[in-house]
Design brief:
Length: 311
Amino acid sequence: MNTLRNFRMELPIVLYIFSLITSGLCLVQSKEWSYEGENGPENWPGVCVIGENQSPIDIVTDDLSRADLGRLKFIKYDVQYEANITNTGHSVQIDLNNNEELVVPRIETTTSTYILKQMHFHWPAEHTVDGKHDALEVHFVHYDKQYNNFSEALKHSSGIVVVASLFELHTHDNHDLTPILEGVVTVTPWVGPSTAIMNLKFMPLVLLPKDHTTYYRYKGSLTTPNCLESVLWFVLTEKLTVSDTQINIFKNLQSSKGSLSFNNRPIQKTGCRKVQHHLDGYSAASTTSSNLLFTLCNLLLVTLLFSRHKM
Ligand SMILES: *[C@@H]1O[C@H](CO)[C@@H](O)[C@H](O)[C@H]1NC(C)=O
Ligand SMILES: *[C@@H]1O[C@H](CO)[C@@H](O)[C@H](O)[C@H]1NC(C)=O
Ligand SMILES: [Zn+2]
């Protein structure tokens, strides 16, 4: 049992190094990726294909391990920022135009502080809950402060924290999206990647559900090439709303291949991963039997990996 336990501790590190090496080899090819056709998700390079901790996933609410993992503290999310909006050809991205360290939005967990780097959207949503695909998902991309910058943090397991909010389709417009949608219209024509300064100031808090204390958490990857497995995901349980008319504004965004009618990566295998559900005050109950299952699952995975490697 002791050797099993040691093995279980080291396995994620081994897999992580393995994925870093393989993704590094394929960096060159990752420039041309898209959401359909020959450069679509089935043919994305390196760790996108062979990784075992990929994102997004389907969150199965009957299969969560519930625990009090500590609240996420959103700091300076309630400030109005000047922001740039960019049509990257794969999404719409928002970068805050501020250089002052003290007013950078960030989240604090029980273990570290994560600095907000950028926000971007996926339509429809990437994560599903019990198979249900929502209309829109926003990703708040953060990096662990101890690594100084985003590119350095990408090299570390859980160096990146992405908080995701889901938007359900609703008959009424969500007026909190108005400044963003005006920006989207401005950068809609494709002239290569293009940036505009948003006319209205923007407050990140409006893209979080009112109750942002409850979340699902799991270890995964970037959902775009090179799909590095450095991401600790927090998918917020509560949802926001968006109307069909508003979604159509996103869908009209032009890219090198015409309208970007969708930009969600297909659901990836959950494999051995356990999705945790944070609830305030829940007494942590990680049972021995689920740990044993996890170990057996990982053993099986390693056997598969090595046999694949020999071929
Ligand atoms: C926002 O856009 C302006 C003008 O294009 C640029 O000078 C500035 O560096 C951009 N800021 C960010 C954070 O990208
Ligand atoms: C990021 O941080 C690392 C280590 O602190 C440093 O070596 C590197 O030059 C930095 N990269 C950028 C783009 O600032
Ligand atoms: Zn994303």
